[in-house]
Amino acid sequence: MHNDLYYQIALTLLPGIGPVKAKQLVSYCGSAENVFREKKKHLIKIPEIGHNTASLIDNKSVFQRAEQELVFIEKNDVQTFFITEKKYPDRLKHCEDSPILLYGKGRIELNVPMVVSIVGTRNATAYGKQVCQEIIQGIAHLKPLVISGLAYGIDICAHRNALLAKLPTVACVAHGLEKVYPPMHTSVALEMAAQGGLLTEFPHQTRMTPELFPMRNRIIAGLSDCTLVIETDTKGGSIITAQIANSYGRDVFAVPGRCYDKHSSGCNQLIRKNAAAILTGPQDLIDYMNWNSESKTTTKQLPLFHDLSEDETAVINLLHIEGKTDIDMLNHASGIQFTKLSNILLELEFKGVVKSLPGKLYELA
Fold first, then answer.
1. What is the CA 31 to chain-centroid distance, rounded?
2. 182 preceded by a cis bond (ω within 30 of 0)
3. What is the DSSP code string of 256-316?
4. Radius of gyration of the chain from Cα atoms?
5. Across-strand partners of 80?
């Protein structure tokens, strides 16, 4: 007998089936286990799946690898976060290409009131390090979770200053949890485990290749309310993270630098192109995000809607709590059959209660 995690891992290992299709399969089949047990004639009827994808699911080689990962997880006290579980990060859940399974090591809590990602150059200057330190010190009283990538430069500066400020901090990495990269940051990673830790979508023994870093960057962007860019050239991982954050509808901030300073050219470009708000200190962030004591105690009241069915009311309550939410997540959270849910959302649109957004997202009108 195998537990749910066994099939969840196996689903992520299927070649040719990425996060979007995997979520579609789980949404229709109800669980990762049911995906593997469902008959092909039923799988091919799922939207965006078809014969080719259905054939990929009949791949028994992934089960041996899933067994190995289960052993590693148990031996190394690894946390897992599956897309349908409550502990899966809500912010990331709303991103269309979010991974269906995450692996974590440490004391990781991702559904907290405030989450900030801080990224930047690996070749940080004294100016960049000072700004990073001052921003973290300036928002420390708000107790945000600080996310970064454990790389040299601004990343490790963000983690170290978060630790000094007694803030939770999580590093998203582009490899499995059997190692720390770069190795020089192992001591920081160990210290982080007490108030955060390491997070990845990759099983252990994953060979680290360049294309994994942009995949890691989407998690950094998706986990956070906002992304702060402190020193970067016009190309590289920090710019990619900022672009992804913008595509997710998240706030992006950039610290300006001198006109001809290569280390700040990317930040200046983000500001010039209105792809990021200018950040001159922690108060800019607090004011822009409305992170003050008054806003924390104020709660929005759900408007009263009349002549709604029980299912319609349930959908509205979910959208009120979660904000922008895609139809797959509404399906998981509400338990309403997918076709019926689609009809409910359409009816609520006609009533002017709900509006649809690009990427199969919905929010209250």
1. 21
2. yes
3. ---TT-GGGHHHHHHHHTTSSEE-SSHHHHHHHHT-SHHHHH--PPPPP--S--HHHHHHH
4. 21
5. 103
- Predicted model pTM: 0.79
**Residue 109 included in any domain:** no
Alpha carbon distance 137, 149 (integer Å): 19
Measured between alpha carbons, how far apart are the two ends of the chain, in Å?
47
Instruction: Kindly state whether residues 228 and 315 are assigned to the same domain.
Output: no
Q: How far apart are CA 307 and CA 297, in angstroms?
A: 31
d(C-alpha 44, C-alpha 38), whole Å: 10
Confidence of residue 300 (pLDDT cuts 50, 70, 90): very low
Tell me the helices (H) and strands (E) count for the chain, helix number first.
Answer: 18, 12
d(CA 262, CA 259): 8
pLDDT digits over 222-239, tens only? Answer: 999 999 999 999 999 999
Give the whole-angstrom CA distance, residue 31 versus residue 11: 10
Last residue of a domain, one of 234, 267, 295: 295
Counting the structural domains of the chain, the total is: 3
Cβ of 16: how many Cβ atoms within 10 Å?
A: 11
Residue 176 has which token pair?
């499995």
Residues 317, 359: one domain? yes
User: Whole-angstrom Cα distance, residue 109 to residue 90?
Assistant: 11
Domain-terminating residue out of 266, 295, 324: 295
**267 — pLDDT class (breaks 50, 70, 90):** very high
Residue 91: inside a domain: no
Q: How many other β-carbons are positioned within 10 Å of the β-carbon of residue 66?
A: 21
Which residues are CB-contacts of 227 (< 8 A; sequence separation ≥ 6)? 116, 117, 118, 119, 220, 221, 241, 242, 245, 250, 251, 252, 253
CATH of the domain at 345: 1.10.10.10
Q: How far is residue 280's CA from residue 20's CA, in Å, rounded to a whole number?
A: 38
For residues 258 and 46, give the distance between their C-alpha atoms in angstroms, rounded to a whole number: 53
Q: Which helix (H) or strand (E) segment is 145 a member of?
A: strand 145-148
Domain that holds residue 333: 310-364
266 with 355, same domain: the answer is no
Which tokens sit at 23?
Answer: 């979520």
